[in-house]
Each structure stands twice: as C-alpha cells, then as structure tokens.
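Table S2 (continued). Query chain:
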Amino acid sequence: MAAGPWGWGPALSLALLLALLLGGARRLRRRYAADGAGPSLRGRAAAAAAARADGVRALLVTAHPDDEAMFFAPTVLGLGRAGARAAVLCCSAGNYYNQGEIRKKELEQSCFLLGIPASDVTVIDHRDLPDNPAVEWDTQLLAAFMLKHVEANNINLVVTFDAGGVSGHANHVSLYTALRYYFFLMESKPGCGTALSAICWRPASSHPCDGPNLEVMKMVM
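Corresponding output:
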C-alpha cells in the first residue's frame, strides 16, 4: 500500500504490536512447558502442525512495503506456525513519496517479525512497476517475475490480493491479474509435474479487517 499523509506512525505501531504478540506467545510456550505438559502431548501437537503444512513453500506477492503487515500478517504467521516456509516478493520499493530506500529497510524489519529472513525477501525495483495508485502494471512483466521466483524456489502456494485489490489500489489489482495470467500460461505447459495453488484475499465487507473470504486457484502443471 502506498504511503499516506499520516506518515509511518501506524506502520511502526503495527510492527511493535506484532513484536509484543510474538513475545507473549514465546512466554506462554515456556510457561506451558514449565507446568509439566506431557512430552507426548507436545509431540502430538507439533506433529499435527507439521503435517498441516508438510512441504508447503509459500510465496507472498505484494505490491508495496507494508502490504505484508497491513493485509497478510495473520496468513504469514499462520503459515509459520504450521511449519510452512514463506518468502516475500514485493513488486515495488514503494517510492511514491521518494521514500523507497527507507521502506525497503522497513519491509525487511517487518518480515523479520513475521518470521521471514531477509534472504527470503525480494524487492523488484523496476521502472515499469511504479508505486502509483493510478497505474495498472504490465501483466506479462509481472507474470515473468512470478514465474522466475516460483521455479527458482520450488513454490507450491502463492498468496496475493483478490480481483479488487482489497483496497482498490491499481497496483494491487495488477497482481491478481498477473497471477491469473500466470496460471493460464502454465496450464498450457503440461508435464512439469508441479502442483501450484494460489490464495487471493477478498474482503467480506468494505473493510479488509472485517474477515476475508478466499478465492482459491489450483492447477497441476
């Protein structure tokens, strides 16, 4: 999401909140262990969590730094708790207000709090993908970047925005369009032997935090 006139206070507050939540979760786990929970119970819980995301390699495709926190933090945290490995492909530096370098650093810090190391965070800073709410990005160019990252990292789950971009931002909408195009291209190339799913977040109401529905796309290449 592009930077707004209110500055970075909300984003920093969200980052601090995530840090507090993660710290609280760690303290609860330590207390649970100290209270004498049986090893078999903990082992069964861990095994069940691992089974839910066994082999999941997820790629979160966003438009701007801060999208990962504003729209996808619960998804990323849930994937991590289930044992999945997640990476982020951010398709612009968020330079609408000439703060791209600052926002790229903030993206890495945010992803660290979400459990994603900097080595799994990629920012595309391409002149044809400007941070601009009035610009629809090139579908084929975006699909090419997605293809490169999916193949290079053996991705089998892609997470991005819905057809309305959740907030209506043209850059967000472009990601959904490009992912649909990507699926169309891959379905015309059978025999790769790779299963790929996509989750596109669609808000249940006018506010994205009121509880999203899912649009799920699946294909076997």
